[in-house]
Specification:
The structure holds two protein chains of two kinds. Chain A is an alpha/beta fold. Helices cover 32% and strands 14% of the residues of chain A. In chain A, strands 3-2-1-4-5-6-8-9 form an eight-stranded mixed sheet, sandwiched between helices. Chain A has a six-stranded mixed sheet with strand order 12-11-13-14-10-15. In chain A, helix 2 crosses helix 16. Chain A is globular. In chain B, strand 7 and strand 8 form a beta hairpin. In chain B, helix 3 runs parallel beside helix 4. The longest helix of chain B is centred in the C-terminal third of the chain and has 20 residues. The chains are: A alpha/beta, B alpha/beta. At the A-B interface, helix 1, helix 2, helix 16, strand 8 and strand 9 of A face helix 1, helix 2, helix 3, helix 9 and helix 10 of B. Bound molecules: zinc ion. Zinc ion binds next to loops of chain A.
């Protein structure tokens, strides 16, 4: 008897070598999973990953070497595995799983789909494709020592979206522009506002000013003088520019903000920072402009600040700020005007660290090291090889149960850091499908918004894409098409849809107001749901920063409670980067372990008090979809 | 140089960035000084080696003179396809080459000769020893040698039999920092471990009712192999009658009921023989790697002192087996 036959007997599985499986993701979990799959005897594997290899992957993605940096993860992983199992058929797709080529028929060819993904959006997409194609899905996630594996079988267990999922953290504009209380607020300010204002695409930041607003409602003035201020003046050298900007954003803007007494009644008043007070003549050292050893332009290298773990003094932060601005203008002028924050851009990380620390100092918030600030700005996920290996092993065990038709034995397994009742690996029975899930059942949703101000563009962005996770939406009102996306739409329809995009809902040919039902569809995902529109005048700026709320409670439709207070424009919010960019190559969506993990226990998205809070920054925020 | 001011190199900082965010720079520095010895390149040991080499231990020495056969590479991905054609190359040498490639910052070497042939002084060169599948007497012998050294040597022995895995840990006396649950503050703690032999001496009748059945089943199987003069794992379903008789005697000696372990579990372990289910290797190898990293970096609470996993029920359970003092 061959080795794999022997194993098959032990697991009571016949012919796994004939089964075809799809792996989505070739990162931290993916590398481990691919290796374990082929060792177990799987012979036909498709692998999808759009990412390329980075140096910081090498501590855990063991199929990759330094020489592979920049190459396709899927392709390099395939070649590495063929070296120890040459006969296996592995098809590597260097592509986005959301591409049209991966349609329902593509998914249907597999016996099981195994996810090792790094973002919520792709996970939700794969969940819908698996539901549509009727293929079982094994889903996974890790962060640090924590991990989990879940199984999703249509009609039998809950789907990936039956329970609300954590959403990326976002902050009210006024907290970022005027009243920061945590370092993360200053980091978001430095990254999304200061960096963008100085070096980014000017057109992109027009509505968000670096200067603290004095308006109560959080709207931001568009002072033409302000826009011009950040242009380099003729004859001005980079040093003079850097110093002028320093005094404006850390000094004068704070002075202006202080004039608004109401803001500071119940808050600590910030201290303006002016350069002449922060740095004396002697402090301004001449720099060598030397790059770090890898050839990267770096302000801390040219200032001789070697330890990224050390928190710089206020003086050093001021020096790094000035130096980084000068280096951008002098050495990276081709990026100026189109710079976007990237956690792997050393100079951008230095600028953000220094600017955030200076602002933090001003507001009495403790400063942090470059290393810590980089982690916060880049939303860097804490990732280690051992947890990924364990999780990959558990994924394969669940896949084997599915393939041997023992789906009743499938479990959701938590990998925990501190044993819970002697258990480090804790299996829990899978929950049944949620009958009110808007993805795997046909539950109507209620969309509350101000129909006098809301537009299709906002609804698409804030609700349909971000909350519902729809990639290519089609919106209908009855049988009337209101919006479509994709490539093969006729020109006159494109013009028609474009005209509707920014029209207020009340001004639509058939006004969209309370009682109207909008249908949202995604043909690719084979997804469809109904949105019951309900008009509401006011929204809580802190709790409902989007100015629109989606819930699964149909009963509230009859419950009109229009507030007397009229509102101005809906406040916007600032996210710490965009969902896809901020993710690293591993996986964050670890759900807290249930307090009492018993069969059928409903999991709650509540914080475990044993976990350090900063690690769970993006983990504990639940999406306001209450289904 | 004072270790607290010693900086990581730029390359270390770049490659280890994500894990430093989990355990900190200080732990990384300690880890990079750890000298680890590994004996017996089974599938689960290959997984363990991959994990600790990626994490950036200081050095790794592999002992396994066996030839590179198909069986040896069944659950061992460190053996590459063309390696098996080499004449006279040992399994340790082949694995060392792959591991070096994984992380050039770690010194990996293959040590020739069997572990039994090494002088006692050889063991003094290491901070941790991981023993793969071995007989009860070899485990006792190596554990005793570790305990004789003046400096602490962390001792691990790990084995996977089919769908079941087991791990024993002896850290002698171990001081470590750990985050306190209530306020997240670092606290200094200490743990004492019994030796392997001491843990074997604990009477079954004195253990809690809910102790993992794998602990008893595996002990019985290993004792059976030793008594019968078999190589560890060289058993099959045909041994069932003899093993059941052996089990009956063991239960009488330990004054426990025979029903303590279901016959099906003993049967399952016999049927597994020497095979290792690769996903179980990945899981056990992950746990051993993680435990070694905790012990070498003196950060985080290590498990004490047994760990069992059975793919049958999916539970990964820690058992503390120590004599009452
Ligand atoms: Zn669902």
């Amino acid at each position: 008897m061959s080795r794999s036959e022997e194993l098959n007997q032990q697991m009571d599985i016949n012919g796994i070598e004939k089964e075809k499986v799809l792996m989505v993701g070739a990162g931290g979990i993916g590398c481990e999973l691919l290796k374990t799959l082929v060792l177990t005897g799987f012979q036909h594997i498709h692998l999808i990953d759009m990412d390329t290899i980075e140096v910081s992957n090498l501590n855990r993605q063991f199929l990759f070497r330094k020489s592979h940096v920049g190459q396709s993860k899927a392709k390099v992983a395939r070649e590495a595995v063929l070296k120890f199992r040459p006969g296996v058929e592995i098809v590597a797709h260097h592509a986005n799983v959301k591409n049209q080529e991966f349609d329902i028929d593509f998914f249907k060819q597999f016996s099981v789909v195994l996810n090792g993904l790094d973002n919520l959006e792709a996970r939700r997409h794969v969940n819908r494709m698996c539901l549509a194609a009727g293929v079982p899905l094994v889903e996974s996630g890790t962060t640090g020592y924590l991990g989990q594996v879940t199984v999703h079988i249509k009609g039998q267990t809950e789907c990936y979206e039956c329970q609300p999922k954590p959403a990326p953290k976002s902050y009210p504009v006024c907290t970022i522009t005027s009243t920061p209380s945590k370092l993360i607020h200053c980091i978001v300010w430095a990254k999304e506002l200061a960096l963008a204002k100085l070096f980014g695409d000017k057109g992109q930041v027009s509505d968000l000013d670096v200067r603290p607003t004095s308006n109560e409602d959080g709207a931001v003035s568009n002072d033409p003088d302000e826009a011009q201020f950040f242009e380099v003046r003729s004859g001005e050298n980079s040093k003079a520019y850097a110093e002028r900007v320093f005094d404006r954003i850390f000094g004068q803007n704070i002075v202006t903000a202080l004039q608004n007494e109401d803001t500071w009644k119940a808050r600590r008043r910030p201290d303006p920072l002016f350069l002449e007070k922060v740095l004396t003549e002697d402090d301004v050292v001449t720099t060598n402009g030397v790059c770090s050893s890898e050839g990267t332009i770096s302000a801390s290298a040219s200032l001789g600040l070697k330890n990224p773990q050390e928190t710089w003094s206020v003086k050093d932060n001021a020096r790094v700020f000035l130096e980084s601005v000068q280096l951008f203008l002098d050495k990276r002028s081709k990026d100026v005007g189109k710079l976007v924050f990237d956690k792997d851009d050393q100079l951008a990380v230095e600028f953000v660290t220094a600017a955030a620390n200076l602002r933090a100092h001003s507001f009495g918030i403790p400063m942090q090291s470059l290393f810590e600030a980089k982690g916060m700005a880049g939303n860097i996920i804490h990732a280690i090889a051992t947890t990924n290996a364990i999780i990959a092993g558990l994924i394969v065990l669940e896949a084997l149960k599915i393939l041997s038709n023992k789906t009743k034995e499938c479990r959701m397994t938590y990998c925990v850091e501190h044993p819970s009742g002697k258990m480090l690996l804790m299996p829990v029975e899978m929950a049944e499908p949620n009958p009110r899930c808007y993805v795997c059942s046909e539950t109507p949703l209620v969309l509350e918004l101000n129909t006098a101000t809301a537009t299709m563009r906002e609804v698409l962005e804030k609700v349909v894409k971000r909350k519902l996770g729809v990639t290519d939406p089609v919106i209908m009102q009855g049988s009337n098409l209101l919006h479509e996306s994709g490539e093969d739409i006729e020109e006159d329809m494109v013009a028609y849809y474009t005209a509707l995009l920014d029209k207020k809902f009340v001004d639509y040919p058939t006004p969209i107001t309370t009682g109207v039902v909008l249908t949202v569809e995604d043909y690719h995902q084979d997804f469809r749901c109904s949105l019951h529109v309900k008009h509401r005048e006011t929204f809580d700026e802190e709790k409902e920063p989007e100015g629109m709320v989606i819930t699964g409670d149909l009963a509230s439709l009859n419950n009109t409670d229009a507030s007397a207070q009229p509102s101005t424009a809906a406040p916007s919010k600032i996210q710490n980067g965009h969902a896809e960019e901020e993710e690293d190559d591993d996986v964050v969506m670890v759900e807290p372990v249930p307090k009492a993990a018993t069969a059928g226990t409903k999991r709650k998205l509540e914080e475990e008090d044993t976990q350090p809070t900063e690690k769970r920054l993006r983990v504990t925020e639940s999406v306001p979809i209450e289904v | 140089m004072d270790p607290s001011t010693e900086l990581l190199t730029e390359q270390e900082a770049a490659v280890y960035d994500r894990q430093i965010r989990v355990w900190g720079v200080d732990a990384q520095r300690k880890l990079s000084k750890a000298r680890v010895l590994v004996v017996g390149m089974s599938g689960v040991v290959a997984e363990t080696c991959k994990n600790i080499v990626l994490a950036g231990i200081g050095s790794l020495t592999l002992v396994d003179d066996s030839p590179v056969t198909d069986e040896a590479s069944a659950a061992n991905f460190l053996v590459q396809f063309d390696d098996s054609e080499g004449q006279g190359i040992t399994l340790a040498e082949v694995c060392a080459a792959s591991l070096r490639d994984y992380n050039p910052m770690v010194q990996v070497k293959a040590e020739a000769g069997s572990i039994q042939s090494k002088p006692d002084s050889f063991f003094g060169n290491f901070d941790a020893i991981i023993l793969g599948r071995s007989s009860v007497s070899l485990k006792k012998h190596v554990n005793e040698l570790c305990r004789k050294q003046t400096h602490r040597i962390a001792f691990y022995t790990v084995d996977v039999r089919g769908t079941c895995g087991s791990l024993f840990v002896d850290l002698r006396t171990h001081s470590y920092t750990s985050k306190r649950a209530k306020d997240d503050k670092d606290v200094q703690l200490e743990l004492s471990y019994p030796s392997f032999e001491e843990s074997l001496g604990v009477r079954w009748s004195s253990m809690p009712k809910r102790t993992s059945k794998l602990l008893f089943a595996l002990r019985c199987l290993e004792d059976f192999e030793e008594t019968e003069g078999r190589q560890p794992g060289h058993v099959s379903s045909q041994d069932l009658p003899a093993l059941l008789a052996f089990w009956k005697k063991a239960c009488e000696a330990q004054t426990v009921a025979e029903s303590l372990v279901p016959e099906a579990l003993l049967q399952k372990l016999l049927r597994a023989g020497s095979t290792e289910l690769p996903p179980v290797c990945a899981i056990l190898g992950g746990i051993v790697g993680q435990e070694l990293i905790k012990a070498m970096s003196c950060k985080g609470e290590p498990l004490s002192n047994y760990f069992f996993f059975d793919a049958g029920d999916g539970k990964g359970i820690i058992e503390k087996v120590a004599p009452n003092t």
